[in-house]
Write a structure and sequence with these properties.
Elements lengths: L14 E2 H17 L3 H18 L18 E2 L17 H18 L3 H22 L4 E2 L6 E2 L2 H20 L5 H14 L3 E2 L3 E2 L13 H8 L17 H12 L33 H21 L1 E4 L4 H7 L6 E4 L3 H23 L10 E2 L6 E2 L5 H14 L60 E9 L7 E6 L13 E2 L11 E9 L3 E9 L5 E3 L5 E4 L7 E7 L2
Parallel strand pairs: 11-18
Antiparallel strand pairs: 1-2, 3-4, 5-6, 7-8, 9-10, 11-14, 12-13, 12-15, 15-16, 15-17
Helix pairs in contact: 1-2, 1-3, 1-12, 2-4, 3-4, 3-5, 4-5, 5-6, 5-7, 7-9, 9-11, 9-12
C-alpha cells in the first residue's frame, strides 16, 4: 500500500491540479451563466496561477517536454511538492484546459478574442499538447491510488481535445494534434465497458471496477446537446444508467444504507473495496449520483421521450416495475411515471447528504459508513462544488455544449496514436480591465488561411534493427527534441516493428517554418546511449499550411 494512504489524518492544504480545475470549471459555468465581477476576478487569478504552475519543475518533470504538467499537486505558494505521492496524474491538464476554455469562449463571444488568444490560449495549448502526447501512458487515477488507464482520465482527455480544437479555431489558431488524436481516445474509451453491465473504471485485476469514477465521468462528459449518446457516455445513455445502478448497488452493504434497497437512494463512496479511512461514503460521490440523474432528466424533457433498452432495463425496473423495453413519448403515462420516479430517486441522494451534513453546513470529505459522522479532510472544496453543481442541474441550469454530438463517431479500428508536443511558458497573465458582457453576442471572424502559430504533424520513421530492451529516441537542436539531451528526447514507438521492416516511429507537432538538426539514438537497457554517425540530419517544416509531413530515415 502506498505510504500516503496509511496516514490516519491528512491536512490537505495544497493546490491540486485536478481539484482546482474541477472547482474552477464550476466557477466558470456559474460566471458564464450570470456575469459576476467577483467570480471573474477569481477566474483571472486561477488562470495566472496555472500559467505559473505550468513552468514549475517538479518530481514529474518540467515544461520542456510537458512531463511536469502531470504533477498532481503543489504547495499553496506555487512551489513544487517533493514528497512521496502518486504521480503522474494525467487528468489534470485536460481538466484545466476544459475549465479555461469555458472562460475563453466567453471572452470570444463578448468581443475579447485577443485576450482569449494572448492569455488563455497559451495555457490551454500546453495542456492540449500534453494530452495528445501522454494520453496513452498510464498514470494514477483521480483517487491517486491506482497506476493504470482510468476511464475518467481518458474521457476528460477526449473532451478537452474536442473543445480545444474548436477553441483554437475561434482565436485564429489550430490544434492539428487535437483533431488527429481525439477519435482514437474515444475509441479506446469504449474498452472500459464490460459485459457485466458496468464500466471497469481502472484497468486493474484486483477490484471489481465498480467505482464512482465512472459516474463522475458521466457528469463531466455531460453535453446538453448530445442527447443520450452512448459513445461519449452521456448521463441518460443506456450504459451510463446501467452503470449508475451497478455502482450504487455495490455500496448498499454499509450501515448507513440499511433499508435502502435497490431503487432507493443510498450513500455512495468511491468504491466498495475502499480501505482509506476503512472505506466510507463521500459527499461528492453521493451528490454525483444525484447529478447524473438530473442531467438525464434534463435531456429526456428536452427531447420529449425516454428510451429503455435491454442494457438499461434493470435500472428502470427498480423505479417503475412495470416498464419494458421501448421508447416512451412525453404523452405516455409510462414517461410520466419514469420522470416522477427518477426525480424522486435523484432527490433522495440529496436527502442522504442533507441527513449526514453537520448542523453548521460544513462539508468534509466523507461521512462514516456506520454512524454517518463527518470525517476525513475538512472543508473539502470539491464537496462544496459538487453540491452547487448538483443543485444547478436540479434547477435546470446546464453548461454549454462542448461539441460531443459532432465528435462521437468511432474510427474503424483503435490505434494508440500520440503526438509529441511543443511547449512554451505562458507569460501573459494580466487581464485588461472592464471585461464586461457585450450587448449582443460577437461572432468571431472566419479564419482565412492557416494561423500564424500553425503546427504541422511531422512523422519520423526510422529503420533500425534493435534488440529486446533497447529503445530508440529522436534528439535534436530544438526544445521539442530535447536540445540534444537523450534523456529529454522523444521516444519512438516500435508498434509497427517487424523483422522484415524494423521501423520505429513518432509524430511530433512542430510550428510551421521551424528549422532544426537532429539524430536518432539507441538507448540500451542499462541506460547507455549509442548515437548515429555524423553528420547531423536537418529538416525545415514547410510554411505552406500543410497539416502533415513524413520523414523516412535509415540508421547510419
Amino acid at each position: 500500500m502506498p505510504a500516503w494512504l496509511t496516514v490516519p489524518i491528512r491536512i490537505d492544504w495544497y493546490t491540486w491540479t485536478r481539484d482546482a480545475a474541477l472547482v474552477s470549471k464550476l466557477v466558470v459555468d456559474r460566471f458564464t451563466d450570470e456575469y459576476n465581477t467577483t467570480l471573474q476576478n477569481t477566474i483571472h487569478a486561477y488562470a495566472a496561477a496555472q500559467a505559473k504552475l505550468q513552468g514549475v519543475s517538479n518530481p514529474s518533470g518540467s515544461l520542456s517536454n510537458g512531463a511536469g504538467l502531470g504533477e498532481p499537486k503543489f504547495m499553496v505558494d506555487l512551489k513544487q511538492f517533493t514528497g512521496d505521492w502518486g504521480r503522474p496524474q494525467r487528468d489534470g491538464p485536460p481538466l484545466r484546459a476544459t475549465a479555461l476554455i469555458g472562460y475563453g469562449r466567453w471572452l470570444v463571444s463578448n468581443g475579447y478574442a485577443d485576450t482569449a488568444k494572448n492569455i488563455i490560449w497559451p495555457i490551454v495549448k500546453n495542456d492540449l499538447a500534453y494530452t495528445a502526447q501522454y494520453w496513452n501512458q498510464t498514470g494514477f487515477d483521480l483517487w491517486e491510488e491506482v497506476n493504470s488507464s482510468s476511464f475518467f482520465t481518458i474521457a476528460a482527455a477526449h473532451r478537452a481535445l474536442v473543445e480545444g480544437s474548436a477553441f483554437a479555431t475561434s482565436v485564429g489558431s489550430s490544434c492539428s494534434a487535437c483533431d488527429a488524436i481525439a477519435p482514437q481516445i474515444l475509441c479506446f474509451q469504449q474498452s472500459f465497458w464490460n459485459n457485466n453491465g458496468y464500466v471497469t473504471s481502472n484497468l486493474v485485476n484486483y477490484r471489481s471496477g465498480k467505482d464512482v469514477n465512472s459516474i463522475l465521468t458521466s457528469i463531466h462528459s455531460f453535453d446538453p446537446a448530445a442527447g443520450c449518446d452512448v459513445n461519449t457516455f452521456q448521463p441518460c445513455s443506456d450504459k451510463a444508467l446501467a452503470n449508475h445502478k451497478a455502482v450504487v448497488d455495490s455500496m448498499r452493504f454499509w450501515g448507513v444504507n440499511s433499508g435502502r434497497t435497490a431503487g432507493k437512494a443510498a450513500a455512495v463512496g468511491r468504491y466498495s473495496e475502499d480501505v482509506y479511512y476503512n472505506g466510507n461514503p463521500w459527499y461528492l460521490a453521493t451528490l454525483a449520483a444525484a447529478e447524473q440523474l438530473y442531467d438525464a432528466l434534463y435531456v429526456w424533457k428536452k427531447q420529449g421521450s425516454i428510451t429503455v433498452t435491454s442494457t438499461s432495463l434493470a435500472f428502470f425496473k427498480d423505479l417503475v416495475s412495470s416498464v419494458s423495453t421501448g421508447t416512451y413519448s412525453s404523452s405516455s403515462s409510462t414517461y410520466t411515471s419514469i420522470i416522477t420516479a427518477v426525480t424522486t430517486y435523484a432527490d433522495g441522494f440529496i436527502d442522504v447528504v442533507a441527513q449526514y451534513t453537520p448542523s453548521d453546513g460544513s462539508l468534509t470529505e466523507q461521512f462514516d459508513k456506520n454512524s454517518g459522522a463527518a470525517i476525513g479532510a475538512t472543508h473539502l472544496t470539491w464537496s462544496y462544488a459538487a453540491f452547487l453543481s448538483a443543485a444547478a442541474r436540479r434547477a435546470g441550469v446546464v453548461p454549454p455544449s462542448w461539441g460531443a454530438a459532432s465528435a462521437n463517431s468511432l474510427p474503424g479500428s483503435c490505434a494508440a496514436s500520440t503526438v509529441a508536443g511543443s511547449y512554451a511558458t505562458a507569460t501573459a497573465t494580466s487581464f485588461p480591465a472592464n471585461l464586461t458582457p457585450a450587448s449582443t453576442t460577437v461572432t468571431p471572424p472566419t479564419p482565412t488561411g492557416c494561423a500564424s502559430d500553425h503546427e504541422v504533424l511531422v512523422t519520423f520513421n526510422e529503420k533500425v534493427t534493435t534488440s529486446y530492451g533497447q529503445t530508440v529516441k529522436l534528439v535534436g537542436s530544438i526544445a521539442a527534441l530535447g536540445n540534444w539531451a537523450p534523456a529529454s528526447g522523444v521516444a519512438l514507438s516500435a508498434s509497427k516493428y517487424t523483422s522484415s521492416n524494423p521501423t520505429w516511429y513518432t509524430t511530433i507537432a512542430l510550428p510551421q517554418g521551424t528549422s532544426f538538426t537532429y539524430k536518432y539514438v539507441v538507448v540500451n537497457s542499462d541506460g547507455s546511449v549509442r548515437w548515429e554517425s555524423d553528420p547531423n540530419r536537418s529538416y525545415a517544416v514547410a510554411s505552406n499550411c500543410a497539416a502533415t509531413a513524413t520523414i523516412n530515415d535509415t540508421w547510419r
